Amino acid sequence: MTKQLKSEIVAVGTELLLGQIANTNAQWLSEKLALQGINIYHHTVVGDNLQRIKKVFEQAQNRSDIILVTGGLGPTEDDLTREAFQLMSNLEMTEHAPSMKKIKNYFSRHNQNMTPNNSRQARVFKGSKVLFNRVGMAPGMIVKHESNTWIFLPGVPGEMKDIVTHDVLPFLQEETGNKELIKSLVLKFIGIGESALEHELKSLIQSQQNPTIAPLAQNNGILLRLTAKGESEKYVDELLDKTKSQILAKVGDYFFGENDQTIEQEVVRLLQEQNKKIAAAESLTGGMFTNKLISVNGASSVCPGGIVSYDKKVKQNILGVAPETIKNKGTVSEECAIEMAQNVSQKLDSDIGISFTGVAGPDRVEGKPVGTVYIALISKDGYQLVQRFEFMGNRNIIRNRATLKGLEIIFNFLKS
After folding, report:
1. CA 72, CA 196: separation in Å to the nearest integer?
2. What's the CA gap between 100 and 94, in Å, rounded?
3. Which Gene3D superfamilies is this protein grouped with (predicted)?
4. How high is the pLDDT of residue 177?
5. Under 8 Å CB-to-CB from 311, ≥6 apart: which residues?
6. pLDDT of 56 above 70
């Protein structure tokens, strides 16, 4: 029988509160636990202060059945997770011999002197289930205290993920008795807003039960997360496939990939499939579009290069935009964008040329307001497109949105 248990995550570390690093551990843990049907009710971040950590632990003890703690297990004086829990629980600590041996061997192999504080990492609570750290030094622990289960994990993401995957998730599955399989599928869309997508799928979303459908907006497009439950992987996959088909029947024109797939990967795949090359002339975006493409493995076969023509002299002398165009129409214009796309395609012997010119801010340029962007697309078979956009946001947001819009334009062209 499945137990319905309340769970929470506590992250220890002042660096998290200062914003020096992001709390990606909690995000990853929440996702993995949700797939096992374990509900997370609270996320807490607390700095490296003994009394404050103790207070947070007391709150967690009173409201949750399972508490996962990341961080504060290292060798330095500000690693206080064990001390705070001991202060609250009065449990005795002891040295874990296998972990101590590993720490000593590490320093010996690297011909380094081991300072006494490194032995702190081998301390565990008596009676706890020790989770050996295969990646780093400090082991994790599972501690039963009163009616609660405490799971202590290193803060280093690679160490934490390894322990959770190999030890914690199997333990929690047995602890909760949850044998039901939960699986998610992320569908990715571009060229449609979150509200418009939700409107098109209103009937499906309102009638959702299993799988559930959750729209999510991100900087690189709109996502739909489908989550299905079932007794077997085959049954769950059938549910996901059926719902996916229903969704794509309504909004398939905007769909470009699943899960970790990116729009730039799909663009490169389509270019390779069609044996075409693309070159970009970038003013506003300063190479961001080309950088996106060449981040994809195998992009060299479809992207010979690009020209960053930020200054008008570079547009004229290197890219070959006509002086009359710059004088009469300006660098932020349809005419300039078209010549940029045509010329970069010719100069780099590409089937397709794309260009970006506009005003990222903070000031107006040639009388054009901040956010004005022109994107042109030219192909050797005679296709020509130029569009004007008005993007909102600061300088970097405008440049990122222009880059994404360029990827959307070439994606739509290639799949048409």
Report:
1. 45
2. 11
3. 3.30.70.2860, CinA-like (3.90.950.20), MoaB/Mog-like domain (3.40.980.10)
4. 75
5. none
6. yes
pLDDT of amino acid 5: 82
Torsion sign, CA atoms 110, 116, 119, 121: negative
Residues 411, 360: Cα–Cα separation, whole Å: 24
pTM metric for this prediction: 0.73
Spatial CA neighbour of 155 closest among 60, 21, 42: 21
Three-class DSSP category at 276? coil
User: Contact 10/46 with Cβ under 8 angstroms?
Assistant: yes
| Residue 237 and residue 245 in contact, taking contact as beta carbons nearer than 8 Å | no
Are 70 and 26 in contact, with CB atoms under 8 Å apart? yes
Q: Which residues contact 106 (CB under 8 A, 6 or more apart)?
A: 137
The predicted-structure confidence for 195-234, as pLDDT tens digits, reads as follows 899 999 999 999 888 999 988 877 777 899 999 988 888 9
User: CA 403, CA 345: separation in Å to the nearest integer?
Assistant: 18
pLDDT at 1 over 50: no
Backbone phi, psi, residue 399, to 5° = -65, -40
**Residue 215, preceding bond cis, omega within 30 degrees?**
no
Q: At what angle do helices 263-273 and 395-415 cross, to 10 degrees?
A: 30
Q: Six-digit token pair at 156?
A: 């280093």
Measured N-to-C along each axis, helices 50-63 and 81-89 cross at an angle, to the nearest 10 degrees, of 60
